[in-house]
Amino acid sequence: MHLDLLRHGETTLSHTLRGHLDDELTEKGWLQMQSTIQYHLDTQTQWDVIISSPLQRCHKFAQALAKQLELPLLLNAKIKEMHFGDWEGIATQTIYETAPELLANFWQFPTQYHAPEGESLLQFQQRVMHGFDEIYIQMQQHNWNKALVVTHGGVIKLLTCLARQQNLDDLLTMPAELGKLYALNLTQVDNQIHFSEKTAI
């Protein structure tokens, strides 16, 4: 199965750690997603289904696109962004000024450190993997082979890290630009789902 992972575009809180906050896309953010999708439609890319995080920075665009392309739309709450606890909606610069050591540790060793009252990387990984287990089953049931998944930077970074079989402490160095598309293959071996990278887009 093929997954095209689209990160949402710029939002009203793009200068902060948004996590589970439900901020809106800016006009620029919508256009970032639209131009990426248009490029792929122009190159004859076709999807069987659109799957989205329920947060509106993903959901609203996914809903409009599903209507335009006349495709089914599924929402999956498990592919939301990592929850940043006390850091939700706070600018990284502010966190750097108030808790520089904790922020530095989180950036360098996300497997060991997390935001105060936030989700650990292990909890985040388990949640996201459960979400993609569900997606795999749904795609199998409907004989869907290619899905567009509208999601968040943390989810894309995690899956890319897993696809490249890199240490999860490398997570934050993975690519996930606003409004860009990242292609992965999804397979299942011994009831375990696995991700691998497709050729670069």
Question: What tags apply to this protein structure?
Answer:
201 residues, alpha/beta, six-stranded mixed β-sheet, globular
Oligomer: single chain
The tally of strands reads 6
| Average pLDDT for all residues | 95
Enumerate the spans where pLDDT stays under 50 for 5 or more consecutive residues. none
Helix content: 25-40%
Spatial order of the strands forming the largest sheet: 3-2-4-1-5-6
Largest sheet: 6 strands, mixed
Radius of gyration: 16 Å
Helical region count? Answer: 6
- N-C termini distance: 17 Å
β-sheet strand percentage? 15-25%
N-to-C order of helices and strands = EHEHEHHHEHEE
How does the overall form come out from the CA principal axes? globular
**Pairing-aware structural class of the strands and helices?**
alpha/beta
Describe the structure.
It holds the Pfam family His_Phos_1. The structure is a single chain. The protein has helices at 27-42, 56-69, 92-98, 100-108, 121-141, 153-163, and strands at 2-7, 49-52, 73-75, 146-151, 181-189, 192-197. The chain has 201 residues and is α/β, with parallel strands linked by helices. The chain has a 6-stranded mixed sheet with strand order 3-2-4-1-5-6, with helices on both faces. β5 and β6 (192-197) form a beta hairpin. α3 packs across α4.
